[in-house]
Design goal:
By secondary structure, this protein is an alpha+beta fold. It is built from three helices and 16 strands.
Length: about 220
């Protein structure tokens, strides 16, 4: 278990702010030990919560040809036929995974292949499970073409708490299944748009692990 690089600055700033608050409490309330202890306890709890958010557990990457792996830790909240309106403009199977603030927030590539399309869209910060979040929230759209020619679309979507989406891809880049795709800070959602003939292997409300859980099999 390590701390993800996206958390270094946030953890440093959090530590400085909490330290300053505790120093101020000790200075202005030197005789009130109960106040000092409460503030210290709250500070420790807050820092541990922020620290666990940026945890980055090690996983053994195992390529699984023909399988689509979960891009995120979380819970499956959507499995439905829908029209993808940005890239495919046709019917796809959408699988959405919601990440709570307690989940690991590293996103991973569901398949190996070449990045054929990438776009970043600034936007709103609706709650991640809102029906319009996929179209109106801050988001990225990434399309990866498998060596067989099959393309899938991955969409990182910011939520009400998430205020920064990080991505590590560019058009033309070759990516490997299970490696890091990006990171979303403080709770959000990842959508995967699959071919209509894909066999879905997860169920609603099922828990997923990024780079491990098989969410679909490609025809």
């Amino acid at each position: 278990m390590t701390i993800h690089r996206e958390g270094y600055l946030t953890l440093l700033l959090t530590l400085l702010v909490l330290t300053a608050i505790n120093v101020a409490v000790y200075y202005f309330f030197p005789q009130q030990e109960w106040v000092q202890k409460i503030v210290l306890l709250v500070s420790v709890v807050l820092y541990v919560l922020v620290l666990q958010f940026f945890r980055n557990p090690h996983i053994d990457i195992q390529i699984q040809e023909g399988k689509v792996l979960a891009p995120a830790d979380g819970k499956v909240v959507v499995i439905e036929q829908t029209t993808e309106q940005e890239y495919f403009h046709d019917q796809r199977i959408q699988v959405s995974i919601f990440m709570s603030p307690l989940n690991v927030h590293v996103n991973r590539h569901p398949i190996s292949g070449v990045v054929k399309y990438f776009r970043y869209h600034p936007g709103a910060y609706l709650v991640a499970w809102h029906p319009k979040a996929s179209l109106e929230n801050e988001r990225t759209t990434i399309v990866v073409r498998h060596p067989t020619g099959t393309e899938i679309l991955i969409r990182q979507i910011a939520g009400a708490l998430a205020r920064r989406i990080c991505w590590y891809v560019a058009e033309g880049q070759r990516v490997i299944q299970g490696t890091e795709l990006g990171f979303i800070k403080f709770g959000s959602r990842v959508d995967v748009f699959l071919p209509p003939n894909a066999k879905i292997t997860v169920q609603l409300n099922q828990k997923t692990t990024a780079g491990k859980t098989i969410i679909a099999e490609l025809a």
